[in-house]
Amino acid sequence: MKAAFFKEFGPPDKIIYGDLPQPKPGPGQYLVKVAATDVNPIDTYIRSGLVKMDLPLPYIIGCSLAGTIAEAGPNAKRFKPGDRVWGSNQGLLGRQGASAEFAVADECWLYPTPKGVSDEDVAAIALVGITAHLGLVRDAKLRGGEVLFVNGGSGGVGSAVVQMAKALGASFVITTAGNDEKVALCKKLGADLAINYKSEDVDAAIRNFAPEGVKIAVNVWWETLREPDFDRAVNALGPRGRIILMAGRDARPQFPVGPFYVKGCSMYGFAMFNASAQEQRAAAMDISRWMTEGKLRANIGRVLPLSEAAAAHQLQEENTLGKKGTLAGKIVLRIGT
Q1: pTM of this prediction?
Q2: pLDDT below 50 — which residues of the chain?
């Protein structure tokens, strides 16, 4: 089968597009004929060796997949050949990735693909959608009527957070973007206020945003930046505000301890791949329902063939680490016809 894989850690050009043996499903597993996968920052960190994991080599890249069940292994009972499925958590913790014509996935990481939803869309929403759900529902416990701020509402996770916050009943969703085109995209996704952080004063915009003359405070601050400004976040939070962290592995920012605890605030940090199968399945159920209802859609920035996986990783790194700003949304790799 054709696959995108690496034999040694390093830069994107270490990715090989070539042939590997087709895997066989074991007990409780399925062989999935993959139609689409995506590219995430964590994929590039694993490939480069920035995030250390004990991996079998050659190692197939890619966390998320969408496709069709080709074969069921022993004791795998939830799906049958021909069923459309999606999932994430491949390409992590020693599990081979999804960037191949076929992938083996444990039953617990697969979910039924909703009718009317394309493989490309559900692959693009998989990892970022589960991430957004874990932070908003499990950790922040966002409630109807609350105010949410998310840095970078046009990105993969940010765009999912904007849409999910509205689906969960947030009264106001505030976000930032790096140009007017991305600002417009954020508003289209449901943001009540989208701020161009390159041309506007973010703090003033948040402070002065008061629809119908009501003064608001942020209840949940979702931080996507790798180097958070905690003074800005804590200052914007109201009583018992919550901060969600999901980036900044090497960051060591200053922190306003006094204002944080006086307001009774709390902060949650998490990595999606550490969540249990049960937690991720709860997120997947809501994601599938919201996609069916039209409340959640994928934000795809680029679609490339699997043969261009190395170029896709290069583009992702340029925007995640290099902050080039040339990508809004997810990179999807299309597999087959």
Answers
A1: 0.95
A2: none
